[in-house]
Write a structure and sequence with these properties.
Low-confidence stretches: none
Strand content: 15-25%
Order of helices and strands: EHEEHEEEHHEEEHEHHHHEEHHHH
Bound molecules: iron/sulfur cluster
Number of domains: 2
Mean pLDDT: 93
Number of helices: 13
């Protein structure tokens, strides 16, 4: 199939056209922190510096802080006003690993309970991918079955072929978007060949690897090895960065802001790395750091696959790049012992009942 193409010089015109109908989000920098943010209507210079964003694209669907509803009380009781974000949006330039991460967390927000806040944003968003051609040293996506140039989770996929982008139409949503864009041209066979050469070269650039084949079984086997998990958690300072900025972590807390007879309910990102995360009236099952670190690892590589048949990690490498003490998930996964000597097992009922 022949692709389409667009000149890099025309990207501004393309985004401008789409901005009439959609709110367009592009890779942006704010005081050194990169994220998908609303396009300012001018700047298309992100191609020069963009590799991937620090804040993952999940924030477009599950913001770090989100208003759920406001409420007020009068003589008739409580009155609620739901917060509904119905704007049509385009995420332009999402990397394949982050698009995969969104597909992974879709499972949670559409399972037995459909989360209206997440789902409305998801349904109204077109994902335009940009194939990764410059992975970080910490990336290991290929170990999780994710290719740096895969287009399964987006509506359109762009590949950098020099002065132009090759554009692959993936879904009907994507096709419709391109149909009205006069700056998009038909690609030639030579353009398609260039795109193929670029994508073929990238997989080899992802250098770090870990064998994830039997990882769930291995983690299950060493779940009660306290010595092992204490070693794994030794340097962690429980800052929560590796979970808050992980594209597949989705935990949130709910809080109310109250003023006399009215208030607002928000939800905000939370992390299983925090000691208060599991605080309950009678006990806290993960007061010790090693239990929390174990939870983070086992949830991604053992419990989540049990529920949804997919590992909740895309190998994006953020948790490695951003950890202040160089905690390295690849080293941890590579060091999980295959079998546990019986003497090391410290099985407790408490451990088993909080294993999820
Ligand atoms: S980013 Fe590093 S120090 Fe912070 S919670 Fe994660 S592993 Fe621990
Ligand atoms: S666990 Fe680390 S490498 Fe895996 S998706 Fe999360 S941040 Fe990326």
């Amino acid at each position: 199939m022949t692709n389409k193409k667009i000149s890099k010089k025309d990207i501004g015109k393309l985004l401008e056209g789409w901005s009439r109908e959609f709110t367009v989000f592009v890779p942006s920098k704010d005081r050194g922190v990169t994220e998908m943010a609303k396009w300012d209507g001018k700047d298309t210079g992100f191609f020069e510096w963009y590799r991937n964003t620090v804040i993952p694209a999940k924030s477009s669907f599950l913001p770090a802080m989100e208003k759920m509803f406001s409420f007020q009380k009068d003589t008739d009781g409580y009155h609620l006003e739901l917060s509904q974000d119905q704007q049509k949006r385009i995420l332009f330039g999402i990397r394949p690993c982050d698009a995969r991460a969104i597909a992974i967390i879709d499972n949670v927000f559409t399972d037995s309970y459909e989360d209206p806040y997440y789902v409305s944003k998801r349904k109204n968003t077109v994902l335009i991918g940009l194939n990764c051609t410059n992975p970080y040293d910490s990336c290991f996506c290929t170990s999780l079955g994710v290719k740096p140039t895969q287009s399964v989770d987006v509506d359109l996929m762009l590949t950098d072929i020099g002065d132009e982008f090759s554009v692959e139409e993936i879904t009907d949503k994507g096709k419709e978007l391109l149909a009205a864009a006069s700056v998009v041209k038909k690609a030639t066979k030579a353009d398609d060949a260039k795109a193929k050469t670029v994508t073929a070269a990238v997989s080899g650039m992802v250098k770090r690897k870990v064998d994830t084949k039997d990882i769930a079984k291995k983690l299950q086997a060493c779940f009660s090895d306290k010595d092992y998990w204490e070693k794994v958690a030794a340097n962690c300072v429980s800052c929560g960065i590796c979970t808050l900025l992980c594209p597949t972590c989705y935990c949130f807390d709910i809080c109310d802001e109250l003023s006399k007879k009215q208030g607002t309910r928000y939800r905000r990102w939370d992390s299983c790395g925090f000691s208060i995360y599991t605080r309950m009236p009678m006990e806290n099952p993960r007061e010790e750091k090693w239990r929390r670190v174990r939870q983070k690892v086992c949830h991604k590589y053992e419990f989540y696959p049990m529920n949804f048949d997919v590992i909740a990690c895309t190998g994006c490498g953020r948790c490695i790049r951003l950890c202040p003490v160089n905690w390295d998930i690849i080293q941890i996964l590579s060091s999980v012992p295959a079998e546990q000597p019986a003497k090391k097992k410290v099985v407790s009922e408490k451990d088993v009942s909080y294993r999820y």
